[in-house]
């Protein structure tokens, strides 16, 4: 247990001896427990104690002491959802007409110094299998620097209509996307004629990973894994439940989660740098 909590045995046993004899200062910290629970619930059981500590300090203005950090560790360790989660990368079938011209693009994103927002947008889909509504594909478009989710939607098939709908959502947003690199893998819909036409109309610069190299698109691969972890504790059974879970995940990722290099949330960073 000490290894999981990342504390020494000596510290743990000292705490055990005095935990039932709390002083006035420690009793005041009882009010922190429901706050810990709230931020843990907002993450759908995926946030560790460091993330919860960051979020409480940032959003609540509470300075977390050593004892309070230990309290956060103890609280979340008691919750049954805390356990190793397996990555579940879904497979999907792309339905693009065989006689349609396929477009491929060089990986120009890897040569860019991504030191701010609106330089590279990363996109991909991940498959979710629902008990009631079968296989569904969740699509994300995110800013590679801030990892803010700019667009997300759900579709049954990865075809021309789906990618066109995604790009229309992106085009109708208020983001500054002129001359921004749009990076994807080599999935069929990203090589389609409609993708080539729409990205040109939107003045986006297409970029593609090399074949079978997930490491060339790390931003979206990380987010896909985080989304799968997010829904695992309360796995959706229907399309309606998946849509609700997706909205909750987008809100948590953009408005609650503190991004390490930003020292703030994705939304706050964008608003202060626009």
Structural class: alpha/beta
Biggest sheet: strands, sense, closure?
Answer: 5 strands, mixed
Total number of helices: 11
Order of helices and strands: HHHHHHEEEHEHEHHH
Instruction: Please compute the radius of gyration using only Cα atoms.
Output: 22 Å
Helix content: 40-55%
Q: Average pLDDT across residues?
A: 82
Low-confidence stretches: 22-27, 80-94
Describe this structure in words.
The structure is a single chain. This protein is an alpha/beta fold. 42% of the residues lie in helices and 13% in strands. A five-stranded mixed sheet has the order 3-2-1-4-5, with helices on both faces. It starts with a helix and ends with a helix. The model is unreliable at 22-27 and 80-94 (pLDDT under 50).
Task: Describe this protein with a few key phrases.
274 residues; alpha/beta; five-stranded mixed sheet; 11 helices; 13% strand
What is the topological layout?
Layout: H1 2-5, H2 9-18, H3 24-27, H4 32-42, H5 49-60, H6 66-77, E1 120-130, E2 134-143, E3 149-155, H7 160-171, E4 181-184, H8 193-201, E5 205-208, H9 218-232, H10 239-256, H11 266-272
What's a concise summary of this model?
The protein is of the alpha/beta class. About 40% of the residues lie in helices and about 15% in strands.
């Amino acid at each position: 247990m000490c290894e999981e909590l990342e504390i020494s045995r000596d510290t743990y046993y000292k705490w055990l001896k005095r935990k039932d004899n709390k002083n006035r200062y420690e009793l005041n910290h009882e009010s922190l427990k429901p706050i810990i629970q709230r931020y843990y619930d907002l993450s759908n059981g995926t946030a560790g104690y460091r993330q919860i500590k960051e979020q409480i300090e940032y959003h609540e203005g509470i300075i977390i002491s050593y004892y309070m950090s230990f309290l956060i560790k103890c609280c979340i360790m008691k919750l049954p959802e805390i356990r190793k989660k397996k990555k579940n990368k879904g497979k999907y079938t792309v339905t693009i007409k065989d006689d349609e011209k396929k477009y491929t693009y060089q990986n120009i994103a890897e040569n860019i110094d991504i030191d701010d927002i609106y330089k590279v947008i990363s996109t991909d889909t991940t498959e979710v299998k629902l008990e009631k509504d079968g296989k569904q594909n969740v699509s994300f478009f995110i800013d590679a620097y801030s990892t803010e989710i700019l667009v997300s939607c759900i579709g049954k098939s990865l075809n021309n209509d789906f990618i066109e709908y995604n790009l229309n959502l992106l085009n109708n947003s208020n983001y500054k996307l002129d001359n921004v690199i749009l990076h994807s893998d080599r999935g069929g819909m990203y090589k389609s004629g409609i993708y080539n036409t729409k990205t040109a109309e939107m003045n986006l610069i297409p970029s593609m990973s090399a074949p079978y190299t997930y490491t060339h698109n790390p931003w979206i691969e990380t987010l896909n894994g985080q989304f799968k972890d997010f829904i695992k504790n309360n796995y959706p059974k229907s399309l309606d439940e998946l849509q609700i879970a997706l909205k909750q995940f987008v809100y948590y990722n953009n408005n609650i989660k503190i991004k390490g290099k930003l020292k703030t949330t994705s939304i706050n960073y964008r608003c202060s740098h626009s």
